[in-house]
Design a protein that fits this description.
The complex is a heterodimer of chains A (301) and B (198). With 301 residues, chain A is α+β, with helices and mostly antiparallel strands. Chain A is built from 12 helices and 14 strands. With 198 residues, chain B is of the alpha+beta class. In chain B, 40% of the residues lie in helices and 14% in strands. In chain B, strands 2-1-5-3-4 form a 5-stranded mixed β-sheet, sandwiched between helices. In chain B, a hairpin with a 2-residue loop joins β1 and β2. Classes of the chains: A alpha+beta (301), B alpha+beta (198). Chain B: Keywords: 2Fe-2S, Iron, Iron-sulfur, Metal-binding, Oxidoreductase. Chain B: Pfam families: Fer2, Fer2_2. Chain B: GO terms for molecular function: 2 iron, 2 sulfur cluster binding; metal ion binding; oxidoreductase activity, acting on the aldehyde or oxo group of donors. Chain B: InterPro entries: 2Fe-2S-bd, 2Fe-2S-bd_dom_sf, 2Fe-2S_ferredoxin-like_sf, 2Fe-2S_ferredoxin-type, 2Fe2S_fd_BS, Aldehyde_Oxdr_Iron-Sulfur, Beta-grasp_dom_sf.
């Protein structure tokens, strides 16, 4: 065993989970799937005084599609905090309803990790090279947070602050992440380049395109992972695509726009220049793949 | 509401050590351990199931892979207390077969000589068993060599003897298809074997 000693808490329901976090605050870390946290403990990069195991709060395991209606989460896929990445990956509804999420999940590490790791945990951990923070940002997902002060929703655009830092307070519990259901004629793709299958990527791109009946782009979503201390939304590139015809020229312009201001990190895995180059290539590839999938949706409908 | 740093949380109900009860290879087992003890360490040190090997102890190498409810999991990234008292069922390499009656995956690895030093083998065997069970459950879609290599990509072999391990998996796939379906499907797998051994 390699982690430093800690005290273990296992609340049985959501109220006692929230109360435990209110009591322990910044001396505690939440343990869900543990696939990011336990390596940090093993390497002693983290040594919290308390670990609070949220896995026994059974109602947080649900994955629900809420169609349009009156409730606050209508029109969203709601992924509970204890739902594993593999639970969602194997859920047959996801490919049609949140295609970007479905395309990104198999790229995360390996099945052994996805069998324990949770969707919400990966987003709360906020590694900028990870897939799910970029997916959440691209889709305008909402992070549902509960604390002793009540329940609130944080927009993904306000959530990621810096490397492994989020808008969460020490006693906040992420209870779910809500992903908007895709509009008809939407295609999506997540592309990344890593040294080995399952490694953190040197750069990744989440892309989603929605077409109108004339085949023009009515909605474009682009987010980049692994090129900054947080996942980045390429808003100017998206704006350039909306209203345009989905041509290679338009995708090339989007890739120039999306990467123009990038200043990626240099490290042992890749130079900044190489990261910036592959980010541009990946933007074009992901947009092309997203477009093909949107067209395939047309043919089926 | 937070106490000052260093102030003990006397009211906090947490524990540093406790009894853990876990179902392993069909038996209910129990041990009193520090809460920071991983499932891998409980299996090896308390239950003396030393077939589960530890390589990196931080989730990279896959040597410690076991099955929890049929799914492959890294036992170094699970604390034993997380499973305590649940209905989760853990299966280690000892629970798959015996030298006299090997699991079909163990038999295939044996025949394909899917090991050099053998240290990583229990992890590869457990990952392979889970992969084949999921592949069966999803209706046995066609597999190519890339699928087999991706299936094993979460396990490292420091001898780098990957070719014979992929051969072992391909042989297990061929046996399943041969046992369960028509000759056409068996021909498809024979193609896999050929491409993976080139």
């Amino acid at each position: 065993m390699k982690p430093a000693p800690f005290t273990y808490h296992r609340p049985a329901d959501l109220d006692s989970l929230v109360a435990t976090m209110a009591d322990l605050g910044d001396e505690a870390k939440l343990l869900a799937g543990g696939q990011s946290l336990v390596p940090l403990l093993a390497l002693r990069l983290a040594s919290p005084t308390h670990l609070v195991d949220m896995s026994r709060v059974l109602d947080l395991r649900a994955v629900d599609v809420h169609e349009a209606g009156e409730s606050a989460d209508a029109g969203y896929l709601v992924v509970g905090a204890n739902a594993t990445q593999r639970d969602v990956e194997l859920d047959l509804r996801i490919a049609a309803r949140v295609p970007l999420l479905a395309d990104a999940l198999p790229l995360i590490a390996h099945p052994q990790i996805r069998n324990r790791g949770t969707v919400c945990g990966s987003i709360a951990h906020a590694d900028p090279a990870a897939e799910l923070p970029a997916v959440a940002l691209a889709l305008d997902a909402r992070i549902v947070v509960r604390s002793a002060r009540g329940t609130r929703r944080i927009d993904a655009s306000d959530f990621f602050l810096s490397y492994l830092e989020t808008a969460l307070e020490p006693d906040d519990v992420v209870v779910a992440v809500e992903f908007p259901l895709a509009a008809p004629h939407t295609g999506a793709a997540f592309h990344e380049i890593s040294r080995r299958h399952g490694d953190f990527a040197m750069a990744g791109v989440a892309a989603s395109l929605t077409l109108d009946h004339d085949g023009r782009i009515v909605d474009a979503r682009l987010a980049l992972s692994g090129v900054a201390s947080i996942p980045l939304r390429a808003a100017a590139a998206e704006a350039g695509l909306v209203g345009a015809a989905p041509t290679d020229e338009a995708f090339l312009a989007a890739s120039s726009e999306a990467t123009a201001l990038l200043d990626p990190p240099d490290d042992i895995h890749a130079t900044a220049a190489y990261r910036k180059h592959i980010a541009g290539v990946l933007v074009r590839r992901a947009l092309r793949a997203a477009h093909e999938r949107a067209l395939a949706g047309f043919e089926q409908s | 509401m937070n106490s000052a740093p260093g102030t003990p949380h006397e009211e906090a109900p947490g524990v540093r050590s406790q009894d853990v009860r876990i179902r392993v290879n069909g038996e209910d087992r129990e041990a009193y351990v520090e809460v920071r003890t991983t499932l891998a360490d409980v299996l090896r040190d308390e239950f003396r199931l030393t077939g589960t090997h530890l390589g990196c102890e931080h989730g990279v190498c896959g040597a410690c892979t076991v099955l929890i409810d049929g799914r492959a999991v890294r036992s170094c990234l699970v604390f034993a207390v997380q499973l305590d008292g649940t209905d989760a069922s853990v299966v280690t390499v000892e629970g798959l077969g015996t030298p006299e009656a090997m699991h079909p995956v163990q038999q295939a690895f044996y025949e394909a000589m899917s090991f050099q030093c053998g240290y990583c083998t229990p992890g590869f065997v457990c990952s392979t068993v889970a992969f084949l069970d999921e592949w069966r459950a999803s209706g046995r879609p066609a597999l190519d060599e890339r699928d087999l290599r991706v299936a094993l990509s979460g396990n490292l072999c420091r001898c780098t003897g990957y070719q014979s391990i992929v051969d072992g998996l391909a042989l297990a796939v061929e046996r399943i298809i041969g046992d369960e379906t028509t000759t056409d499907a068996a021909i498809t797998t024979a193609t896999i074997i050929t491409t993976t051994t080139e």
